[in-house]
Amino acid sequence: MISLNGATTYLNNSIAGVSKSLSHSQRRVQAPVIVSALSSNNNGPGERNVTLLMETTLKEMREASPVVAVEPKTTTVGGGVEDVYGEDRASEDQPITPWTVSVASGYSLLRDPHHNKGLAFSEKERDAHFLRGLLPPVVVSHDLQVKKMMHNLRQYQVPLQQYMAMMDLQEMNERLFYKLLIDNVEELLPVVYTPTVGEACQKYGSIFRRPQGLFISLKEKGRILEVLKNWPQRKIQVIVVTDGERILGLGDLGCQGMGIPVGKLSLYTALGGIRPSACLPITIDVGTNNEKLLNDEFYIGLRQRRATGQEYAEFMHEFMTAVKQNYGEKVLIQFEDFANHNAFDLLSKYSNTHLVFNDDIQGTASVVLAGLISSLKLVGRTLAEQTFLFLGAGEAGTGIAELIALEMSKQTGAPVEESRKKIWLVDSKGLIVSSRAESLQHFKKPWAHEHQPVKGLVDAVKSIKPTVLIGSSGAGRTFTKDVIEAMSSFNEKPIILALSNPTSQSECTAEEAYTWSKGRAIFASGSPFGPVEYNGKVYLSGQANNAYIFPGLGLGLIISGAIRVHDDMLLVACLATRLPRPNDLIAYAESCMYSPNYRNYR
């Protein structure tokens, strides 16, 4: 007997109904019975979904509850056909909480993406789970299913169609989705992640079919903890959250930014091995300033201007507090695609109280530093001997610059402030110099050095003479022919990183970098480019993408039981690219674990 809000409900009658429907079978099957109350929450936040999982055998269930024939009270519709299942009243308001009882087998099992195996169910499984007749007779291995799906995906000419097909598969057969992705990660990574996910977010309202995470909007202010409890999984280890204000290089996409958390978490499973049920994608909807979306009839988010200032800060604080209360201190919260002004504030505010990680600031920095460490083998100089020039002084640019300065300081023993002097940044107003200090945002001020003001990127390149040029501006085709030729004029092997995503926003293409540098550039990009043939040689460009960092970093944070993220962790992750053997990295990590600083973040 369960009492909900003063109303006493007896489960025996409901269970008896299930017993009656299954009484034809005498097989002893260990099948979980789900008894759930679907609350309408009409009476306030005190009501919430109640789920009771009764692990018992069908035989025990029948013995505990005698079969009682309970005829449903139904109405008749035209033609005298009884509405036995209440389908004619499905659209009506239900003031009384409906009870549903289901067994995780048979028809419902085939529609459960977490457990469905499709045609891969064996003969014994089909008998045990009442699947006879619900599937064609053939048994198909997972390998053959993967082969078939890859054949079907390759028939699509448009990447967005491939993306939609993959999302449909994830919603039908989760294990096949991840096997497909793991076995073909190089081919499918651009489909479920950048660059295709950018287009998917732009058109998310049109292609939206089934929610894949939690949408927490301003309508839920004061009730966020209750909303978190609506999510069916309780043991969450990783949350990827966005407010959609700066999706890749595409700008404010509002609620439609959900494609980013969904895509990131699919890689946490495929590349990091974290259980899908332990991952939770969340979109914080505080409105959008995108006029096109506000006027789009298919837009799925709040149709209002973005909340800012104190209202935004209070809403995010309620969210962060509710997450920690509901999932504990060790749940990893990954901030994704927040605008600069919010990204730095959130990371600074919660890095000492929560296990938080900003992929745009820290993840991008880690993978770029790893790439730089590898590229130094080709140029034959140390990191401290390089001069860096960034186009873009937002969260990605300043995050990369700071991690480079930390590693340089660690290698040379010089103060971080001294190492920063080797790093220059260009924003929309030109080179960041000390004469602009008063007007700069706080996260740009450490990079304001003594120098004459310089407006254009070409002039900055000629004046600073960098050995490394890094683009994180989100502005496509800004590494022009003049810029790359200038880099090549005083560097034998100029290092050029065009990091902005998706491909359309990349500062230059691989072909442009190799052609304009006469094949001498060491090039990497955020989104993938194909092989380039120049002067009889084929060049394969690198990809400096966060996917190479955050799944492994997240897994390490989880299995280590960390409760804070420390810069030393990011540096250790970067070292994985230059240490020749895995044991070297393990030894280095262990030395960090036993250092005095380890206590500060475990």
What do you see in this structure?
This protein has 602 residues and is an alpha/beta fold. A seven-stranded mixed beta sheet has the order 13-12-11-14-15-16-19, with helices on both faces. Strands 6-8-7-9-10 form a five-stranded parallel beta sheet, sandwiched between helices. The protein is globular and about 75 Å long. Residues 1-80 and 577-602 have low confidence and may be disordered.
Task: Indicate the topology.
Layout lengths: L1 E3 L2 E3 L2 H11 L7 E8 L12 E8 H7 L34 E5 L3 H4 L12 H6 L13 H12 L5 H14 L1 H10 L1 H8 L3 H7 L1 H4 L6 E4 L6 H6 L8 E5 L16 H12 L8 E7 L5 H4 L14 H19 L4 E4 L4 H11 L5 E3 H21 L8 E4 L3 H18 L3 H5 L2 E5 L2 E2 L25 H8 L3 E4 L9 H9 L5 E4 L11 H7 L5 E4 L6 E3 L2 E3 L2 E2 L6 H11 L6 H9 L6 H12 L4 H4 L1
Parallel strand pairs: 6-8, 7-8, 7-9, 9-10, 11-12, 11-14, 14-15, 15-16, 16-19
Antiparallel strand pairs: 1-2, 3-4, 3-5, 12-13, 17-18
Question: Structural class of the helices, strands and pairings?
Answer: alpha/beta
Average per-residue pLDDT, rounded, comes to: 83
Low-pLDDT ranges: 1-80, 577-602
Task: Write out the strand line-up for the largest beta sheet, numbering strands in chain order.
Answer: 13-12-11-14-15-16-19
Rg measurement, Å: 28 Å
Query: How would a textbook summarize the main sheet?
Result: 7 strands, mixed
Overall geometry: globular
Number of helices: 25
Distance between the termini: 44 Å
Number of strands: 19
Q: Percent range for helical residues?
A: 25-40%
Strand content bin: 5-15%
